[in-house]
Every structure is written in structure tokens, then in C-alpha cells.
């Protein structure tokens, strides 16, 4: 679709289900940095890499050691590696090109989510958010894990208000804590069960700032926009909040340490709150004031202009789209299946959602072509109008064109080598090492299928030599050979009613 003929007033967000992907029971999805590959974790422990341009399977990462459901998938910065967390408490790092495992680490608790460090092209550190313990930094090379604090130092660290999650070893109940890296990966932003956003230096394992939310309820999701300027939180009070990041995108840890040094005279809690107010400021809140529904897997669009959230209600597949100003612009209604994961394409206005049945739905824009965009003086006619042509309108060289002087210098050199920077990726440069596509490897036919093809071809030759394709000798298995057979003929259980024809005299002569 040509972008120049698209009406800009239509809105740059998806509207209808364009297609769906089906392969096993998929549970979670993630795009690579350019949106050319889509990774999907399945319930059988395998990870499928889809080529999003062709909607075909480019690679299948099969793990013989894992038969549990995948809980999250994450791409490395340049797309050469994929981190997969599973319900069997494992973290597996894959090499995408070769399809081989690099490392496999077993944690003490089931990781609900795992994210690779965003600052390295070949990361060995990841941030894991287990089901029943605090977030941790995991070294995938050594298997070592460092627990992160989930509360300010004055309170009892590691504990949270009572919840339904219980651990069999007698430790206190714990609410899962959401956490994510910032854009450069030098800070971890964690949302705890008290409704607080903690800014943590994971190297020194210290809380450097704290931002209390207005609701004060458990924070279930926390995610940054692609450019790192906005932070999104999803809380148990059924509200999605957008915060503006006031720290610099680079060297945020250095700026945060500078703020702490200027406030050493204050109490720890007060200092953390003051520093937090200079790091994040509330920008917008989103909620459904009528139905008061919970939200599932909220996230930003690729350019950060839109915010989406899926309905957490059972039996419905609804996606709400807001603009950054806080207005609800669209509600996408899908099949009567619960939504479990959601992601926006990094470049195009495409949303991909996962249903409870394991299907992946691709939501795209219903484009309407605006032909008047081809030329500024083009006019769309609703009915026929009489037109009077100019005297020189259909001349090879109109007089009006002769009078115009060309301002183009034909001696100037035209640069056909330099690649213009894509505005969609203004936050980072294109890397020569980046993996955007996977080579297509044709899979050979099974030996049984080859034997069947040879047998069918030999019988087809016999039928051609028999004098007529209608003869019984020329029919494989007593039926006429028809490559474009109808579904009724292909179904062995269906009733086949065929009209017999009277043999011709020439055919009878050949039989004699």
C-alpha cells in the first residue's frame, strides 16, 4: 500500500483482523527490533520464529529438556539471540540463526517474565520476575542470581501484604513484582505491591528513588516506550498510568546519583520521594469508568503515540486504543476467546494478540485509498461534469511548459549510495550486525510421500497410454485421476455419486 494515497485523517491504528497464525498452542509473543520476525512461545516448551513479512515459519526452536509452557520471550538488541522463560523454572538463551541453545539456567521459582539487558548486542544478563519472589538479575553464563529490593530500606525488605500466592516451604506469601530495564539498561524500574515505583541500581542493589502511585495498589505491569520517554504501569485499581521520564536517556544512573548527593541531609524516605518526583511525573491515566474492567498486557505503539490494553474479562477478546492525550479512539472486538498477550508492531500500525485457544490474531488497518493525494490539483467527482479543454492541453509540448524555465541543474551529481535515516528508528542507528531476516531452508519431502508421488505419476502415464482417461485401467484405485478434485471427492467418508458414460465405438474397437 502506498503511504502517499492513504487518508491521514483515518488514524494510524489497526481496525480489523487481517489474518491469524496457527501452530500448536501459542502463549506469548514478541517482535524483534525491526518487526520483521515474531517469536511465539508455545505450551509444549517450543519457540516458533515467524517471518512476519511472509507469515511463514522461519525457525522452530525445539527444546528436548523443556516440556512446560513458555511464559515469556525476549529478543536481544540486534536479534541474534532469544531468551525464553518457561513454567519449569528455566531460562534458556537461544542462538536464532543456528537454532542451538547457548545456555540454560534453572531458578528457584517460576519466572513469569524475563528481559535481556538492552544495552548489549550479546547480553549475558537478564532481569527475571519470578512468581513468588522478588525480581532478580541473572547472569546467564554463570547461573548466579542477585535479588533486587522491592521496598524502601525502612520497611521490611522482601515482604509484601498478604496475597493468594503461597509458597510450600513456609516463607511468607508474596505478590509478584513487575520490573523492567530503562532504555540504556543502567537502571531497573520495579513496581511493588504497595503501589510504589522503585528506581534501583542493580549493580549496587540499592533503591535510589521512589515514586508512589495515586491508587496505592499492586502494580501488575510496567513497561517503557520504545524511545524511553514514557513509562506505563498497570495496577490492580484497574487504571493504566503514563509517566513522563525526566531523567536523560543516556547516563540516567549518573544523573540519579547526582540528585541523591544534593539531598543527603534529608531522611531516607523523604529523600527518595523527592528524588523520585524529579525522575517521573504523572502524565495521564486511562480507565473504563463504566465497566471498571481489569487490563491485560498494556503497551505503547512503536512511536509512542498510542496506548493499548486488552480486556482481562473471560470470554471476550477486546483491545482498547487510546491516544496519548487520554482519549479512547477505538475498541477492537475479536472472537469470543480470552486475550492473554498483546504487542504492537515496532513500525507499522499493526497489533498482534494471542487468544486463550493458542491462535495469534493480526490486527491491521482497513485502508481506504485517497486518489486525490496523487496531485494537489486532483479533484474527485461525484457526478459527471462538462469539461472544456485548453487549446494546447494535448500538445506534445504545451506552450505553458515552453515558457517555464527549468531550475534543475543537470550537472549536479545524484547521490544513490547514502541511505536516509528512517524516522521510525530515530532512537537508534541501523547496525550492520542486526538480524532482520532468516534464510529460508526448504524441507525435503518424506520418503513415503515421494513413493506415493512416483506411484501416482506412473499410474498417470499408464492412464494416458490406455486410450481414454475414462477407462477402468486408467484410474488409480478404480477412480478417475483429478488433481483439482473437490472436497467431496477427497473425503473418504463422503458419498460419491458418479454418472457412467456409454463407451464409444472407437474405444470398443481398441478393446477388441
Automatic annotation (TrEMBL):
Q: Which SMART domains match?
A: WD40 (SM00320)
PROSITE patterns in UniProt: WD_REPEATS_1, WD_REPEATS_2
Any keyword Ribosomal protein?
no
UniProt-annotated location(s): Nucleus
The keyword Lyase is assigned to this record: no
Domain of life assignment:
Eukaryota
Q: Which PANTHER family match?
A: RETINOBLASTOMA-BINDING PROTEIN 5
Q: What is this protein called?
A: Protein RBL
Amino acid at each position: 500500500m502506498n503511504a502517499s494515497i492513504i487518508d491521514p485523517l483515518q488514524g494510524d491504528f489497526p481496525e480489523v483482523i487481517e489474518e491469524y497464525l496457527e501452530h500448536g498452542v501459542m502463549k506469548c509473543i514478541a517482535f524483534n527490533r525491526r518487526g520483521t520476525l515474531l517469536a511465539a512461545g508455545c505450551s509444549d516448551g517450543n519457540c516458533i520464529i515467524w517471518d512476519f513479512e511472509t507469515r511463514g515459519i522461519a525457525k522452530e526452536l525445539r527444546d528436548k529438556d523443556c516440556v512446560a509452557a513458555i511464559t515469556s520471550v525476549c529478543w536481544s538488541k540486534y536479534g541474534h539471540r532469544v531468551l525464553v522463560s518457561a513454567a519449569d523454572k528455566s531460562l534458556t538463551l537461544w542462538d536464532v540463526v543456528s537454532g542451538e541453545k547457548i545456555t540454560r539456567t534453572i531458578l528457584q521459582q517460576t519466572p513469569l517474565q524475563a528481559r535481556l539487558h538492552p544495552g548489549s548486542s550479546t547480553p549475558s544478563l537478564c532481569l527475571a520476575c519470578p512468581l513468588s519472589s522478588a525480581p532478580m538479575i541473572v547472569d546467564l553464563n554463570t547461573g548466579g542470581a542477585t535479588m533486587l529490593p522491592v521496598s524502601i530500606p525502612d520497611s521490611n525488605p522482601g515482604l509484601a501484604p498478604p496475597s493468594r500466592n503461597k509458597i510450600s516451604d513456609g516463607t511468607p506469601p508474596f505478590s509478584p513484582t513487575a520490573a523492567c530495564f530503562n532504555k540504556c539498561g543502567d537502571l531497573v524500574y520495579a513496581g511493588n505491591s504497595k503501589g510504589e515505583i522503585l528506581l534501583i541500581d542493580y549493580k549496587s542493589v540499592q533503591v535510589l528513588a521512589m515514586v508512589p502511585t495515586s491508587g496505592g495498589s499492586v502494580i501488575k505491569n510496567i513497561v517503557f516506550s520504545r524511545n524511553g520517554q514514557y513509562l506505563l504501569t498497570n495496577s490492580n485499581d484497574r487504571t493504566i498510568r503514563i509517566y513522563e521520564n525526566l531523567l536523560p536517556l543516556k547516563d540516567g544512573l549518573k544523573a540519579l546519583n547526582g540528585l541523591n548527593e544534593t539531598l543527603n541531609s534529608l531522611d531516607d524516605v523523604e529523600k527518595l520521594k523527592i528524588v523520585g518526583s524529579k525522575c517521573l511525573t504523572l502524565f495521564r491515566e486511562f480507565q473504563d469508568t463504566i465497566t471498571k474492567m481489569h487490563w491485560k498486557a498494556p503497551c505503547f505503539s512503536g512511536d509512542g503515540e498510542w496506548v493499548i490494553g486488552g480486556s482481562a474479562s473471560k470470554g471476550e477478546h477486546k483491545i482498547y486504543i487510546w491516544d496519548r492525550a487520554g482519549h479512547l479512539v477505538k475498541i477492537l472486538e475479536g472472537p469470543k476467546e480470552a486475550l492473554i498477550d498483546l504487542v504492537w508492531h515496532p513500525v507499522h500500525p499493526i497489533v498482534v494478540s494471542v487468544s486463550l485457544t493458542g491462535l495469534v490474531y493480526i490486527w491491521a488497518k482497513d485502508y481506504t485509498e485517497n486518489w486525490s493525494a496523487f496531485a494537489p490539483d486532483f479533484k474527485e467527482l461525484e457526478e459527471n461534469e462538462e469539461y472544456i479543454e485548453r487549446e494546447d492541453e494535448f500538445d506534445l509540448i504545451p506552450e505553458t511548459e515552453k515558457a517555464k524555465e527549468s531550475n534543475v541543474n543537470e550537472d549536479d551529481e545524484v547521490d544513490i549510495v547514502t541511505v536516509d535515516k528512517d524516522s521510525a528508528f530515530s532512537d537508534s542507528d541501523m547496525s550492520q550486525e542486526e538480524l532482520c531476516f532468516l534464510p529460508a531452508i526448504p524441507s525435503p519431502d518424506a520418503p513415503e510421500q515421494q513413493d506415493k508421488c512416483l506411484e501416482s505419476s506412473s499410474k498417470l502415464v499408464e492412464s494416458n497410454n490406455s486410450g481414454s482417461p475414462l477407462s477402468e485401467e486408467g484410474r488409480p484405485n478404480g477412480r478417475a485421476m483429478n488433481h483439482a478434485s473437490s472436497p467431496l471427492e477427497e473425503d473418504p467418508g463422503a458419498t460419491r455419486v458418479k454418472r457412467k458414460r456409454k463407451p464409444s465405438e472407437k474405444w470398443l474397437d481398441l478393446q477388441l
